[in-house]
Amino acid sequence: KMTQQMRDLQLAQARKPPGPSSPNAAKRLYRNLSGKFRVNYTSLDEGGAVARAERDRLRKSCLFQSNAALFEAVELQDLDRVQELLKQYSPEELDLNTPNSEGLLPLDIAIMTNNAPIARALLQAGAKESPHFVSLESRSLHVSTLVREAEQRVNELTAQVVNEAPNSDCSDKEKQLKAWEWRYRLYKRMRAGFEHARVPDAPTNVHLSVASSSSVLVTFWEPLSINSAVVTKYKVEWSCSPTFSPLLGEAVVDKLKNLHFTIQGLVSGTAYYVQVSAYNMKGWGPPQAAVPPFAIPSNWREYDGRAPRRRGQAEALDHLLGQVKTVHQHCVCHEPCKNQPQSRKHSVSKSLKHLFHPGSKFLKTLKRGLYLTAIFYKDDNILVTHEDQIPVVEIDDTYSCLLMQDFLWFTKVSCMWDEILWLRQCVTVSQSSCSCILQTRFKMLLAISQMQGLLGIQDLGQVFFEPVKDKQGNILIVTLKEVKTSQTFESVRWVPICKLQSGRKSVSSPEEPTALDTLLVSIQDKLAYHQRSSHALAPGLYLGYLKLCSAVDQIRVLVPERLPNVLCHVKIRSNPNVSREEWEWLQKMVSKEEPVPAESEAEASQNHLFQELQVAIKELMALLNIPLQEAKDFRLYSQEVLDFGDQVSFLLLLPPSDDVCTAPGQNNPYTPRSGFLTLPLQIFELGEER
């Protein structure tokens, strides 16, 4: 960009004030930007109008200088500085797509000097080419004009410097001459880059797949050769004819962070041909047909007209629960609670003060019995009572029933924290039977209500997948909840976990730690499990592995520790949809008695899903530490594709029928490597729903 002196001499009506016009000036600007212009606005007085005006002025000055710095960094081919500015400022703050006084944008300079790394960085930030260049002729004329004017200015300044006697004015002229000589070389380099460039080659790896019953997905890569000019956009075209005549539609892809495009609004069962072409400053290159050349929008459910498994299930359950409530609303047991509000809306800061009230009923030590503890955490801190204890309440001090079934019932109750009062009233009616199970579950509901009342919080979080036990007969049911609010609570103790662990003084011997000791020692693992169990899979089609093991009172399922709410899995591809043609092929393959040879089956070798499955099965076997030769005895579950929403789907890989579920005492020949655990099946189902 031209200096202030240049603008006074030639461009008095320029749209934008220019930045520095030489490498030395650019370096000075970088130093200024890192110091003078990086203002701490939060230190200004927000309450005064003068302070706000001064802040706005400084902000505008900073943004102007950052825009000037971006142009200079591109002209000097300083990739690191360009990336730093793009990270520090938004495209709007940088005026990324506003032309300068020469009618150029940063992207124009980058692509015409053939600086591919800087051009790609600008493109990913949303940079565009100058709107002045509506044709090849307009771009060529514009650059030639810049070269001619710069050359003319260099000649004029050279003559003035030669003819004038040495003085201060002559020194200024020499500085201007150096700046114009540098700019003249830049414009000539831009013109040479434009003249030597050619249209880009066709994109590579253009792949077409079926995205749904009404859409197809096309993915592609950059051309192998860009012919000395960076590709700035792509064009996707589609037609029902292999000759693309007539053309049904086209779309321009100018967001180049991810090279893909979904063509929507198509007719199911109709074949669509797709091709993609690339564009640079010299124009559009030749199109590249997709592989396969056409795709037919469809979904695997069309194979037999099957409806989604979960369609209407949530609504049906809500309706059923409403009917149950209606039947019980006039019950005598509900009279005491009619005058009570359904929800007590205490502020968290007020209600948490119960933790520190001397009359609270949290337990300090455990006797033999069944207990409930609630762990609330934020970052590396944990919520404790006024006595630095994790909140614990008693469920039953004479517990003698089988724990697992009651525990699994408790986990289901955790999906209805807001309905505990109603559940208590319902269970009260049934106590006349004096059932041990019903009495225990009623005590569980009482303990939940007590914990909610003492904490002032209804939602106690997620139940940890197994209770904590000790040799003294104590059993702890643990709930976990992350507090993400940044609000500061009065009189509430958030104690660092490490401090709580080191400060725990157990009354038991080290050889026989209590359940609370065991909980504190393993609390980091439990918090990690809670955080990982809320993570979601990225969109795509996955190959899952179903492996069960049974015990006396439960069935457990193998899951990865890093994502315990999902089966062991590997990703097959990013497109979650399985088309009707793919599902039909899969049914034929599964129905064959002999395995499909990878080399001799011509049809299968051409099937992209077959190749993807081969890669996924090898990866999954390695992950599970199962010899690859054993995979020939495994089976693909061919009854359905497991859909989890619109973005995630699973194909299931099953061991031989005798090995799907390992019985107690049965030897499992293949032990997975570290990084796996087994969850009770009901716990896994609840985590999956979450």
Task: Summarize this structure briefly.
This protein is α+β, with helices and mostly antiparallel strands and 690 residues long. α2 packs antiparallel against α3 and α3 (49-75) packs antiparallel against α4.
Structural description of this entry:
There is one protein chain. The chain has 690 residues and is an alpha+beta fold. The protein has four domains: 55-196, Alpha Horseshoe (Serine Threonine Protein Phosphatase 5, Tetratricopeptide repeat), CATH 1.25.40; 207-298, Immunoglobulins (Immunoglobulin-like, Sandwich); 369-534, Nucleoside Triphosphate Pyrophosphohydrolase (Alpha-Beta Complex), CATH 3.90.79; 540-689, no CATH class. The chain is 37% helix and 18% strand. The protein has 20 helices and 24 strands. Strands 9, 10, 11, 12, 13, 14 and 15 form a seven-stranded mixed sheet that branches. Strands 3, 4, 6, 7 and 8 form a five-stranded antiparallel sheet that branches. Strands 16, 19, 20, 21 and 22 form a five-stranded mixed sheet that branches. Strand 17 (548-550) and strand 18 form a beta hairpin. Helix 4 (79-88) runs parallel beside helix 6.
